[in-house]
């Protein structure tokens, strides 16, 4: 059991530093809305991960392999991300930095529910996350003889490690709050929107033109290395 925990912790750290829409929105939420809002957002992300884990555990491997490689799902998820990014960008474009909207007000319970849902949906529409959890079950499941207790300990440790690292990221990002002027907030929101838009396009390309998308990813990796 202790070995399972030790094996899970590095995977939680790795998951926390995977670059994607959730990563950037988490930092933005921490910097603009504070620790509690970012933590609620992160809990929404973790709920989506837990749902994916249940799907991967109780589904058959053949069905899940088809599901995670279904081009239509990539196109659907990418389209949602692109739409979300465009709507956010247009809203920011129309916002006047002197309108008083940027005074940090106390959030209501309904606001936290929206933030929770935002974290859940941003993670859930990324079908690649399902592939990640399915891959871990396929790799580590047989070594643990698919024992429910060991698997629960293993994946719970991954999620808790992920949360621990994210809390550190939230605390670091929160320090930027006092330095954020209305204009800087608008600029950061525009940048986040563009990043999410790019991730959406990548997902669409994976579904519509997987071979070309893989070539582009290989070229980018080669240039970075």
Give a brief outline of the structure.
This protein has 225 residues and is mainly alpha-helical. The protein is 81% helix and 0% strand.
Task: Summarize the SSE layout with pairings.
Layout (H helix, E strand, L loop, with lengths): L1 H15 L4 H13 L1 H24 L2 H8 L2 H24 L14 H16 L2 H14 L7 H27 L7 H27 L1 H15 L1
Helix pairs in contact: 1-8, 2-3, 2-8, 2-9, 3-6, 3-7, 3-8, 4-7, 5-9, 9-10
Class from secondary-structure proportions: mainly alpha
Supply Rg. Answer: 19 Å
**Which runs of at least 5 residues are low in confidence (pLDDT < 50)?**
none
- Which percent bin holds the helix content? over 70%
> CA-to-CA gap between the ends?
37 Å
**How many strands, what sense, and barrel or not for the largest sheet?**
none
**How confident is the prediction overall: mean pLDDT?**
77
> Number of helix segments?
10
Please trace the helix and strand order, writing H or E for each element.
HHHHHHHHHH
Determine the strand fraction and express it as a percent band: under 5%
Protein architecture, described:
This protein is mainly α and 225 residues long. It has one domain (2-224). It is built from 10 helices and no strands. It has helices at 2-16, 21-33, 35-58, 61-68, 71-94, 109-124, 127-140, 148-174, 182-208, 210-224. α2 (21-33) packs antiparallel against α9 (182-208). The two termini are 37 Å apart.
Q: Can you tag this structure with a few keywords?
A:
mainly alpha; 81% helix; 225 residues; single chain
